[in-house]
Specification:
Blueprint (H helix, E strand, L loop, with lengths): L16 E6 L16 E7 L6 E3 L18 H17 L6 E5 L5 H8 L3 E6 L2 H9 L4 E3 L14 E7 L8 H10 L1 E12 L1 H7 L11 E2 L2 H10 L2 E9 L4 E8 L2 H6 L13 H20 L3 E4 L3 H21 E5 L17 E2 L3 H4 L4 E4 L5 H11 L5 E6 L2 E5 L1
Parallel strand pairs: 4-5, 4-7, 5-6, 7-8, 12-13, 12-15, 13-14, 15-16
Antiparallel strand pairs: 1-2, 2-3, 3-9, 8-11, 10-11, 16-17
Helix pairs in contact: 1-2, 8-9
Bound molecules: zinc ion (ZN).
């Protein structure tokens, strides 16, 4: 891909970072005998609009929102507080509010609790069915061209939360939103915060589902170019989310709007590259020292990390790592995407005499550690993957 998906201008010639052996999507696991090949992708930046993007194709299910794990209690509380202050600030009590990418209606319920009148759209008929079963109002619409009309339009407000970065044709989608709103309508737009990834050198957050990686500056550009003023910007939810409140421009304001001309210098990802290299080398050292190693936790993060290791030294990885364990029955018997390790039940860790256990399970890692040491009496070396790298546990 040589041109920007958003503005059509040239992408920088040199890639900022390259990835190989990565899972092709965040959903689904390959079956034995039918392994996928995984994907390679490069991170590039548009020289014109400044948006950082992947050069790989969108995943097949980009039109639908999937919130596999539902909402955590923390996220539920965060959204309730956020929605009620949004409604208060813009006097949206009893007003029609459009959610773009509503999934199974997780946020529609909360918006209802906050006295808005939410209406959801999503590209998946199954999601819409789930919403309707819950008594929520929703309709199967995805703005492929921007000419699609939503039944209950025009709306007083809209929100799109962690969905914009999945959308291949953003100008068409934003036109669809714009044309289904009343003049003066406000909105809430959220994406994962790339400024934070840059600041903390988070190299493991690039996934094929997310085509774009927005900074506050590049997101504001895109919103302005497509008919929205940005009223307020903040970085929220432990810095992971870039959140903007916007207002629809009138046609007159849109015509009169002159974007600031900027030139985008080459973005420096050397910190991320160094962090990735250090992480991989540390990991390889642990694998070298062990004889029979296993990972516990078959998550997207694990699959991505295994791809980094395979890229660096496939022979060593294949020799030392015997399998990935996970307690979810629907994952067992399948393979890790791109790297093709067996996913097995955690019981295999003792049966097969492992000497090194690498726990990669996010918020569940400490609980798994206790299970391994106390219930299973595993006496080998245990490491937990933290945000800062692998931590040895006694
Ligand atoms: Zn561009």
């Amino acid at each position: 891909m040589e041109n920007c998906r958003i503005c059509g201008k040239m992408l920088c010639r040199e890639s900022l970072m390259d990835f190989s052996s990565q899972p092709a999507s965040a959903q689904g696991l390959p079956e034995k005998g039918n392994p996928d090949r995984g994907v390679d992708f490069s991170v590039k930046r548009c020289t014109c609009c400044g948006v950082v993007q992947l050069d790989s194709p969108p995943v097949s299910y980009f039109r639908e929102v999937i919130r596999t794990a539902g909402l955590s209690e923390e996220m539920r509380k965060f959204r309730l507080a956020q929605f009620s202050s949004f409604i208060e600030k813009y006097s949206l009590q009893g007003k029609k509010i459009l959610e773009c990418g509503c999934g199974e209606g997780e946020y529609l319920v909360l918006m209802q609790e906050c006295k808005g009148i939410p209406y959801g759209i999503d590209g998946s008929a199954k999601n819409i069915e789930k919403c309707v079963q819950k008594g929520l109002e929703a309709e199967k619409v995805y703005f492929d061209t921007g000419l699609e009309k939503v039944k209950k339009a025009p709306f007083d407000a809209f929100y799109i939360l962690n969905f914009l970065e999945h959308i291949p044709n953003i100008p068409a989608y934003l036109k669809g939103i714009y044309d289904n709103l009343k003049d003066g309508a406000v909105g809430l737009v959220e994406v994962p915060d790339f400024d934070m990834m840059l600041e903390k050198d988070f190299f493991a957050e690039f996934i094929p589902d997310h085509l774009y990686y927005f900074t506050a500056e590049s997101l504001q550009n895109i919103l302005n170019e497509n008919g929205f003023f940005v009223l307020h910007t903040e970085n929220t939810f432990h810095s992971y989310i870039l959140s903007m409140q916007v207002r629809k421009m009138t046609q007159k304001e849109k015509n009169a709007f002159i974007p600031e001309k900027k030139s985008y210098e080459k973005l420096d990802l050397s910190g991320m590259k160094k962090a990735k290299e250090k992480f991989v080398k540390d990991f390889m050292k642990i694998l070298s020292a062990g004889k029979r190693c296993a990972v516990w936790g078959a998550s997207h993060q694990t699959f991505s990390v295994l791809g980094f290791l395979q890229e660096y030294d496939k022979a060593l990885l294949q020799k030392k790592l015997l399998f990935v364990a996970d307690s979810a029955p629907f994952k067992q018997g399948k393979l890790t995407p791109a790297t093709h390790f067996d996913i097995v039940s955690p019981g295999k860790i003792m049966e097969e005499n492992m000497d090194t256990l690498l726990i990669m399970a996010g918020g569940y890692s400490d609980e798994i550690y206790r299970i391994a040491r106390e219930k299973m009496s595993f006496s080998g070396n245990i490491y937990i993957l933290r945000a800062t790298g692998l931590e040895k546990c006694e």
